[in-house]
Give the backbone structure.
Amino acid sequence: MKNTQKFPSNFYWGAATASYQVEGGIEKCDWAKAAREGRVPPCGRACDHYNRFEADFDLAKELGHTAHRFSIEWARIEPEEGQWNFEEVEHYRQVIQALKVRGIKPYTTLWHFTLPQWFVDKGGFENPNSPEFFARYSQFIAHELGSEIEDLTTMNEPIVFAGLGWLKGNWPPFKQFSLVGLKEYTNSGDRSMSRPQKKFWAYFTYRKVVNNLARAHNLAYESIKAVQPQLEVSLVKHVVAFDANWNPLNKLRAWIEDQFINHIFLRKVHRHCDSFGLNFYHYVKFGNRPKYEHSDMGWEMAPAGIYNALQVLWKYKKPIFVSECGVADHNDSHRAWYIEEQIKGVAKALAEGIDIRGHMYWSLMDNYEWALGFDKKFGLIEIDYDTLERKTRPSAWVYKELIEKYSKVE
Ligand code: BGC
């Protein structure tokens, strides 16, 4: 009998990180400036992953990982407008090589939230020319590094970036839409620290930013393909899975939220995506709400809801890789269960024919959780920020066992 739990033999397993959150020493970007102004916590040397990536990838290999998602820091590559730093290109070439020699497939993201200061000084993604700047950077990386990788993601969670920067105002550039108390589906921060400017028209600026982000992705896609047509180009989308009981009003509410958070943006970019990365953290049911425990982020823990999120993305019929899915759990008491449930959700979607290529847990190691600083512990590997010592958490070994179990051929 066919084992429906079996994953395809070429399925990739691993974990994810992002440059600013782990590397350390990134100064020429908007988050570093905001930290100097006391509006977000300082990031400093973070996990010093910039210097320790080889040892960190040794740990990933020991944990059975066959894929790793990381991001390139735009501010390192183009610290001033139009000036390319080739030493930093070499650094990321070494990162890619270090993964490949360990048998770990690199999933590379071009931009994960932090922006070069020169770009922000020109208005960032409010600037009508921002898509061209982003596409130029994307093409440069594709040209320099594209022949060494197979997959390239343009951007991470554009709607989270725009929502927290222009509607909630907890992230740079700290603009807050003054009319509504928006429901929060992702990271937050401390308002007294970020000191957002309340503006009625922030909503309209938000819409402009969202449109520029979509155009930036689409243009980057074309610019990458012009120099490396073989690269599989994707966008990573944060999908909130909305569900409802029988009640038609609840169904309508779930549909509206699904449109607003998920589909409005996806419709603008899906024709320029060879595949999608899925970042999954939230399952929300309207009516007959089950009771869930909360993670250290205060988020309901409903990892099996990844199945519903995969269905949302599958509407566009593009291959999907799980680019992030994880839990903040400082004493590691829920993580093993959480990972097992999320993998079961992926297995269910696979069995129904959804084309899923890989699964990357967030995160390989503890890191800088944006406006919340270093307190939230998402890592399979614990970091002691005083000594920078790495300690593998017990749940990381459970993940390894699950990888072995689900990869097993009958
Ligand atoms: C982001 C990560 C973040 C994680 C946990 C995702 O939204 O891509 O940068 O650390 O969620 O909040």
Residues 207 and 314 are 25 Å apart (CA to CA).
